[in-house]
Every structure is written in C-alpha cells, then in structure tokens.
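Tokens as discussed.
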C-alpha cells in the first residue's frame, strides 16, 4: 500500500500524517445508500525518522504481506480460538450429565475472545517496539 499524506503536526519525535483512506468497494455508485464509496481521512501517528516538517507531503508505504498478517491476527485468531474452544468444550461436556451443554459450550467459546484479545494486544505492543516498522515514510 502506498498513500500520499500531509504532515499535520510534529510533536517531539512523532509525526501526525493525514491521508485519505479509500472506500471499501472502490466504486462510487449514485444509487447506493450504504455510503461505502465515501473516502475518509485518517490520521496516522508514526516516528519522525525522515525529519519531516509540518505541511510536507510524504508517502506512506506498507508491505501487503504485513497488512494481510494483521488482518489474520485481528480477524482470524479470535475466530480460530473461538471455534476451537466451542468444539473442545462441546466434545468434553457432551460426555457429562449436563442438560444444556451446547449453551455452555457457546459461552465458553465466547469467553475465548478474552484471551485472543490479550494475545493480539501483546503482539501489537511487541511489534510497536520493534525497530523494523511495518509502516515507513518517504519524503517527496
């Protein structure tokens, strides 16, 4: 992904870069009421490794494999943990004399979202401190 952004503010060693995020569907349909084609502006906080100044135009660069790995982490990991928790709890609780073990299995699976959140938070903090950043800037 390569986007152009404008440095809105420099505070200490941090840049606040404003860029326009593309719409989800990529097309503008006049009859669509979902408003998914509207582009929105986002502000990104990143280390100022290129000594950019306020008002400069910079290019935001991120590798597609990094974006896909974060998508899997945020969406795939909780889903996998929840399905695994539901399946295992259903299997073991079905061998007991509980009446509503299906409902209990669902709640156990739903509760597995808490550890998945903690895992995601740990990985995100670890990656934020890494020197090899997932997002880089280039001065234009």
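Sequence:
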């Amino acid at each position: 992904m390569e986007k152009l952004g404008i440095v809105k503010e420099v505070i200490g060693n941090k840049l606040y870069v404003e860029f326009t995020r593309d719409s989800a569907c990529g097309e503008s349909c006049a009859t669509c009421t979902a408003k998914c084609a509207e582009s929105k502006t986002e502000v990104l906080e990143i280390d100022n490794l290129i000594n950019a100044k306020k008002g400069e135009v910079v290019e935001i660069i991120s590798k597609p494999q990094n974006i896909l790995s974060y998508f899997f982490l945020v969406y795939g990991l909780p889903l996998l943990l929840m399905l695994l928790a539901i399946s295992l709890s259903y299997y073991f609780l079905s061998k007991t004399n509980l009446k509503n073990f299906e409902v209990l299995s669902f709640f156990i699976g739903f509760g597995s979202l808490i550890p998945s959140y903690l895992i995601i938070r740990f990985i995100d903090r670890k990656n934020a401190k890494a020197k090899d950043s997932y997002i880089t800037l280039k001065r234009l």
